[in-house]
Amino acid sequence: MTEICALASGSNGNSYYIGNRHDAVLIDAGITTKQLLLRMKSRGLDPSKIRAVFLSHEHTDHSRGIQVLSKRLGVNIWMPKETWYSLPPYFKPPYVRFFTAGESVTVGSLEVHTFLKNHDAVQPCSFLVSCEGRTTGVFTDIGEPCDRVRSALKTCHAVFIESNYDEKMLWEGSYPWPLKQRVASSVGHLSNRQSVELILGEWNPHLECIFLSHLSQENNTPAKAFEAFEPLHHRTRVLLTSRHDASEVYCLE
Fold first, then answer.
1. pLDDT at 131
2. Residue 49 DSSP code
């Protein structure tokens, strides 16, 4: 059995838990270690099972907690070397290991496959985490879906998929024009509509659960994201994530 949970998901912090009876990994740690451990406790998840943290890219909402978490739990933070060099000194963890995008890393009983994505960071990566024949994808901070993301989707039994913004809210909202352009660019984020089209276009009948992730506080609402995914509600479980609390834990049997 694989347990998956969004410990934090949003523009102010992201962290995703994937684990089994013996081992677990986190993808990103963009909130404080105190908050992360409290949220794990609230969902009955055991921090002692965490064997590694994989960092998707250097932006603060993904890397804020890695230094303290690495010290506290004594775990390696895995990232590309380019990401390490781009981190400020006060974020750099004491225990670090490097991977090259496209490489697979074995962590206990879990296998983590890494690959590049389109985002405005130095070496941004998405991940597939596999165990006992079940695969979970973590696909957030994607400006536009490349062939690697499309191919990976077809292997997933569960996925954290970016549903960052509602297009009307973005273009009519208060963001300055350059920031609006950045969000909607090919190295920015996916809108609700783009995310739905991606899932439908690469539909995988084994996909059990979709976590709607990295929702913008200013340019989206949980209701709008959930409503946009209405065409998929009869095909698979669609769950919301939150910037304030951990999501429910979904179990892949």
1. 93
2. G
Structure tokens at 203: 């539909």
Burial class of residue 102 (count of CB atoms within 10 Å of its CB; 0-12, 13-18, 19+): exposed
Helices 33-42, 66-73: axis angle to 10 degrees equals 60
Distance of alpha carbon 166 from alpha carbon 190, whole angstroms: 9
Ramachandran class of 60: left when φ > 0, alpha when ψ lies in -120 to 50, beta otherwise = alpha
102 Cβ partners below 8 Å, 6+ apart?
114, 115, 116
116-167 pLDDT per residue, tens: 999 999 999 999 999 989 999 999 999 999 999 999 999 999 999 999 999 9
Q: How many CA atoms lie within 13 A of 80 on its CB side?
A: 21
- CATH number, domain of 160, equals 3.60.15.10
pLDDT, position 11:
86
**pLDDT at residue number 253:** 86
The number of distinct structural domains making up the chain is 1
- Average confidence (pLDDT) over 16-21: 97
Q: What's the DSSP call for residue 217?
A: T
Q: What one-character DSSP code corresponds to residue 87?
A: S
How many residues in the chain?
Answer: 253
Distance CA(171)–CA(177), nearest Å, equals 9
Q: How far apart are CA 137 and CA 185, in angstroms?
A: 22
More confident residue, 11 or 13: 13
Task: Give the model's pLDDT for residue 13.
Answer: 95
DSSP notation for 151-211: HHHTT-SEEEEE--B-HHHHHHSSS-HHHHHHHHSTTS--BHHHHHHHHHHT--TT--EEE
Residue 126: give the domain boundaries: 2-252
